[in-house]
Each structure stands twice: as structure tokens, then as C-alpha cells.
Amino acid sequence: MNRRELIRNIAAGTVTMFVVPAAFTSCEDDLVDPDDNNDPPDDNILTIDLSDDKYSNLASAGGFVKEGDLIIINTGDGFIALSNICTHQGCSVSYSSEDNNLPCPCHGSVFSTTGSVLEGPAENPLRKYELSQEGDILTITL
Ligand code: FES
């Protein structure tokens, strides 16, 4: 290798060391951070539109609907939302308007409308969710 070739190789190496990484770096700058300007949907809120036929059971006292793992009840004094998953072994509880409680069909546990255990074998309460109403819209904070 003569002197001219040596200088050319050093120059090429310098270009490779500084220009090529800069090109990759500039590509990284073009990437969009998914957290920037991209507010995630608020998964902690469930809204129920009482004017929707899907929720017509809530129109009268004693009516209830199940929405996912929730049971929403019109107690006659207002609306409440509880987990419908029995804390004993996970069966789906229902609502008895006659007794104003939530019996579990599997092993006989009964819960109050506050979620507390009235009869076992369940030992832990149902989770009760914060619910507010504005017109026909129920907002449940999960
Ligand atoms: S799963 Fe509800 S009482 Fe057992």
C-alpha cells in the first residue's frame, strides 16, 4: 500500500466511523414515541346509556344487567355496580329484587347490595364500584 492508498483508506474509515452511525441515529429521531400525543383511552371508566335498549332492564326498580364482570342494579333507590364474580369460587352472582341481595347459584353464598357477605361459604365481599348518574348516563369508575 502506497501513501496515497493509505490516506484514501483512512479517509474512507473516517467516513464510515462518523457518517454511517449518524445516518442510523437520524432514523431513530424519526421514530414516533407511541406515548407522545397519543393519550390512551380511559379504560377505567364504563358508561351505560340508559336510553339504549340494551339496558332496558335497568328502567325499573329491581332490574339489573351484567356487563362483563359487573352487575349493575336498579335498586329502586338508585343504581349500584358490583363485581358479579363470586369471591368463593368465581361463579356469576345474580340479583334478587325480592330479597334485595345477590345470591350465588353455585354454593349458596349471598351478598348484600354493599357487597358484604351475608351467607358463606364466600368469606370476602364483592367489589363495589363508584357510580354516578347524569341524565341517562351512568358512569362507573373501574
Ligand atoms: S362460587 Fe359462589 S358460593 Fe361458591
Q: What can you see in these coordinates?
A:
- The protein has a domain at 45-141: Rieske [2Fe-2S] iron-sulphur domain (Rieske Iron-sulfur Protein, 3-layer Sandwich), CATH 2.102.10.
- The chain contains 1 helix and 9 strands.
- The protein is flat.
- With 142 residues, it is α+β, with helices and mostly antiparallel strands.
- Residues 14-38 have low confidence and may be disordered.
- The N and C termini lie far apart (74 Å).
- The protein has one helix at residues 3-30, and strands spanning 45-49, 64-67, 70-74, 79-83, 102-103, 110-111, 117-119, 128-134, 137-141.
- The longest helix is centred in the first third of the chain and has 28 residues, at 3-30.
- Helix content is 20%, strand content 27%.
- The protein has a 6-stranded antiparallel beta sheet, with no helix packed on it. Strands 5-6-7 form a 3-stranded antiparallel beta sheet, with no helix packed on it.
- FE2/S2 (inorganic) cluster binds at residues 86, 88-91, 104, 106-109, 121-122.
How does the SSE layout of this entry go?
Blueprint: H1 3-30, E1 45-49, E2 64-67, E3 70-74, E4 79-83, E5 102-103, E6 110-111, E7 117-119, E8 128-134, E9 137-141
Antiparallel strand pairs: 1-9, 2-3, 3-4, 4-8, 5-6, 6-7, 8-9
The protein binds FE2/S2 (inorganic) cluster (FES).
